[in-house]
Amino acid sequence: MAKPGKNPPPTSRETPDGRAVPSALQRRLLYGLNVGVMVAAAVGICILLNWLVYRQYRAMSPDSRQWVRYDLTSTRRYSLSDQTRSVLKSLDERHTIVTMLGGAEADPTQTQEIQDLVDEYARASGLLEQEHLDLASDTERRAELLGEMAALYADDTRAVREVLATGFTHIEEGSDAAPGLLDELVTIQALLQGVIDAEVVTDDTLQFLYQLKSRNDLAQEEYNKIVALRMEQLGADWRLRLTEDGLVSRGEGKDLPDYVLLLAHLQQWELAVHQELLPTTYNAAQAIRSRIRGSRVDSPEVRNRTLMAKDKLVQIERLIREPTGERDSLLNRAGEIANALQVRADQVPQRYNDARAVLSNQACVLVTTETQARVIPAGLLYRGVGSIETVESNAQEQFLGEEQLTGALVSLSLDPPPLVVFVRSNTGRPSLSIGTGADRTLGDYSHVAQRLRAVGIEVADWTYDPHASKAPPRRPGQHVVWVVVPYAKPMPEHPQTMSQALKASVMRFVEQRLAEGDSALIALAPNPYANPERRDELLALPGIEDAGLADDPILALLSDWGIEAQIYRSAYRVTNEDSEGRPIAPASPSFTVTQWPEGGVLGQALDGIATYFQEAYPLEIIDTPGVEHTPLIEITDPTAWLQDAPGPQQVRGQPLNIPEDAKRDRVLVGVAAQRNNARLIVVGDQLWATDGATTLGVMPDGRVMPRLADHPGAYIQYPGNSELFLSSIFWLTENEDLIAASPRTQDIRRVPPISDAAVKRYWVLLTGGMPMAVFLIGAAVWLVRRKA
Counting beta carbons within 10 angstroms of the beta carbon of residue 101, is it exposed (0 to 12), middle (13 to 18) or buried (19 or more)? Predict the structure, then answer.
């Protein structure tokens, strides 16, 4: 019984409106269900929003997409360079990029990186499609692509295919006037066997006959090997495969035919038959016939066999040497076949051979149009030998995929590709690298040459000698740029540097080529004896003979183009000041340029990209009828001044005496000029395009050395030097639309690398600090709720 004054305990929990209050279990289920519904709704909304955004993104133009995607990586890993975007905008036909990667030894990280880059290209242009193949599984599609490649290179391989078809036909089938060469060899074999069967020769002669017949047998065996090779390369329907209609009929997943290898074997066999086998057989037949002599005491049977043997030998001699009716002699026909099997150097399908070698056994990236194709081995997409990463390397810095892909797109638009010829100077040093391995000689311009080849431009190194060597051959309609590398500074202790005869000959040659519409790039070197104000004084020095030193041949050519080159004078800048702000020694002749003249041929495409000039010689422009000048490079430094050689007398820490009239705020060191169809670029520095400047690399540990730019983990200290050279070549070849910052400039870090100590701190913070912070926040919330 309840006590008075107290309410009885409730028998059930109800709300004021009479509804039952849920139990704790019911509440947990209800709250859990609500949270589950909200999570599912949030996930669904996120998926829907992502789908809507992606759909809208796909509908946007390539130019608009760049404003909704932002790349915050230190080396712009997910951004296409200005040059690439310029090339993609210039596309006027559909292109396809196919990655043929994978396999047992493939690196999944590199495969994904290459495919991501190709996807970036496809996103940036509506005229570019991408396709990704796995070499291990997509064998049928690979076979289709190989057939398409054979058709695309039909023009490249046409001459060799026609020669092969003609050669095989004449060797195996002959013509209406005469049987094939192979049948004639079989006939000779039968005649030789008939002589042996007559048994009228001595043992020595019989042994000689067996050797001769063995050589003929060997020739037929060698041809059977060629037939087996033909079967391997072309299949049973080789006649069709050598025609336009049979190029795409392969479809068996095998490699592209090696026409050049097949032709080389056929040429070698035919040469051996024409120059060795047939003459040897003819001479042997004559010699053996003279040795066979009958005797009066011989029986009629022996005499008949003797006459029969001689008759067969005569038949061999006539077959080889003498025409019969409309049939020419076998030796002459063999010579005609040998001539028919020859192809000119320009008919060798070099591009097809390069593509076939890669497509046969390497992972690669294929860039195609409806009429052309370029194949990039996967190994070229990464910096370093064999794409091997070291402990201090960084995959972002090693990846050169964009440079290679953009170069392939550019090369497809160059038909025929321009030819750049480096003309050696009196230093004798090669411009391009020669040889391989331990015997390799490094060239002074190997880096920029490699950059030129990457965009499909042909490169050659040539030593001018009008009597001993001819200039590299050019294709019909091919634009040629003659790069005149610097000559050695005249020094009396080195007599070969004092003579200007070679320089004068080269300048006459370049002047002639410019008059015929070619272009030239001239890098200047110092010549203190060319100072017109001190001419008599300098040439009067002991041991100095003029020999053209004062009237420098390069200055004469440039003067005709309205350019005055002061190669006897250098620009200097102040690098140190005393406590009162006065300039003190040492001064420096080197400058770093990051800004380019407005309206110049570069169009500010390289603004902000460091370009190094070790010793700059000033240029001046003189108005010349018919010549249009454009400033190319200007040095802007408020402390700069000009001084004649040998330069300021410098004692470290001592004041510099700078004449007021020598000070220059702006110094012109590069000029572009055009006269009719000819173009000329002059740069007043002798080292700006050499490997010493273009490959100056910075390692992660801070080392700065030449030829480190392509080392894994390094980045280029002065990327503008090679960019300036490439842009100059593009302007000289009338490809101004390609002048833009290339992918190489993205090696410059916008964010400095993280030190090892910082990496450890971040690791401790992420693995220990953040979980501990979450735990403490959760504990605090639990305590607050407990108190409530």
Answer: buried
